[in-house]
Design brief:
The chain is of the alpha+beta class. It has helices spanning 13-24, 114-117, 145-149, 153-160, 178-185, 191-194, 229-235, 299-330, 344-358; strands spanning 28-33, 42-48, 51-58, 61-66, 81-83, 94-95, 101-103, 124-130, 133-137, 163-174, 208-212, 215-220, 248-253, 257-262, 266-276, 279-289. The longest helix has 32 residues, at 299-330. The structure holds FE2/S2 (inorganic) cluster and fe (ii) ion (FE2). Residues 184, 190, 194-195, 319 line the site of fe (ii) ion. FE2/S2 (inorganic) cluster is lined by residues 69, 71-74, 88, 90-93.
């Protein structure tokens, strides 16, 4: 079948601006883990649809605001994450949990009244959680996170609640449009050539796809089944884990987050954040499973965690290499592109993207 997204969608600046408004502005965007904001004043920052956003634990509640000071527009939280009150670094305005600037140095020198102060409230956005995942929605509409995630809500909840020890955080800049990076993860057609010594050895196969709303899941057996002798030693410490599958699952949380697991023993969540039409930020977390009983980490587990970290870093470096090659090629491609059945999830991703981009023309 013909690809739906033609080459210009991967490099034209004007299309990039449109998609940021129509897709990222209106989606529930997964931005991190609830466990990253467990203490008062823990925060993380991101950019959605070109708007700087801060999520912050404010007295136990997770709030999302535009990360722009209402005095004279400095960014308020300047680091990707940390623990710090909501205080602007420029002149020191500090904001409460409603986004009101209640702490203003030299306040008598300003003219505004108490009522006018309310107009200086930070723009606030909707926040919702599903299991251990944090989502933000910029659009002011009635779509709940449950509606948005459709049939995958319960799955995402169960999988993300099974995250245990954090094994690695791997962040890198990829010189490719975010859709090239996402699409790369949605098909296993490239595994034989790109992941020769890594992913290919797992022995994934098949076309077992499930779709709900704009999200998609691929489930596959692996070369070794759960009870196979070859993997028993490694699997033994994780025998009583909360989430078990006999193979590998890979889920796209539309538009830009990938959640995968191998046997329910290891987990990966990757965030592909658009930076510009030709640059993306890729941030990936690797976990081993939460265990039902807490025991000291054994030597077998430590060796397994190290191999997981190496494996994931190699796989993502391989994907980065080829995505950057696609970004170079796409600028002069005279073709629309072709998709096989193995690339069905790419096709559905493109359909969802294109439908959102072309609907509600008048709204923005
Ligand atoms: S710009 Fe934030 S306090 Fe002045
Ligand atoms: Fe890959």
């Amino acid at each position: 079948m013909k690809a739906i997204i033609t080459p210009k969608y991967y490099f034209e600046q004007s299309l990039f601006s449109q998609e940021q408004k129509k897709i990222f502005h209106d989606s529930w965007v997964c931005v991190g883990l609830t466990s990253e904001l467990s203490d008062n004043n823990d925060f993380l920052t991101t950019v959605i649809a070109d708007i700087p956003v801060v999520l912050q634990n404010m007295k136990g509640q997770i709030k999302a605001f535009q990360n722009v000071c209402s005095h004279r527009f400095s960014i308020i939280q300047t680091e990707p994450k940390g623990n710090r009150p909501m205080v602007c670094p420029y002149h020191g305005w500090s904001y409460n949990e409603e986004g009101l600037p209640l702490g203003i140095p030299k306040k008598p020198l300003f003219e505004f009244s108490k009522e006018e102060l309310h107009c200086l409230k930070l723009v606030e956005y909707s926040v919702a959680t599903c299991g251990n995942l944090l989502f933000v929605k910029l659009a002011n509409n009635d779509v709940t996170l449950e509606d948005y995630l459709g049939n995958f809500y319960a799955y995402i909840e169960e999988v993300s609640n099974s995250f245990g020890r954090l094994v690695d955080v791997n962040e890198m800049k990829i010189e490719a449009n975010w859709k090239i990076v996402v699409e790369n993860t949605l098909e296993s057609y490239h595994v034989n050539l790109i992941h020769t010594d890594t992913f290919r050895k797992l022995g994934t196969s098949g076309l077992d796809f499930q779709f709900s709303k704009s999200h998609s899941l691929w489930s596959t057996d692996l070369k070794y089944a759960e009870d196979d002798k070859a993997v028993q030693v490694v699997h033994k410490p994780y025998k009583n884990r909360p989430f078990k599958i006999n193979g590998y699952n890979h889920l796209l949380i539309f538009p830009n987050v990938l959640l995968s697991t191998t046997y329910g023993i290891s987990f990966n969540i990757s965030f592909v954040t658009p930076v510009s039409e030709a640059v993306s930020n890729f941030k990936s977390y690797v976990f081993t499973t939460r265990k039902n009983e807490e025991k000291k980490t054994s030597a077998v587990e430590e060796a397994y965690e190290n191999s997981l970290k190496d494996f994931n870093r190699k796989v993502f470096a391989e994907d980065k290499f080829i995505c950057e090659k696609v970004q170079i090629g796409v600028r002069s491609a005279p073709y629309s592109g072709e998709l096989s059945e193995e690339e069905m999830r790419v096709c559905k991703f493109q359909q969802s993207y294109y439908n959102l981009l072309t609907q509600n023309e008048s709204l923005h």
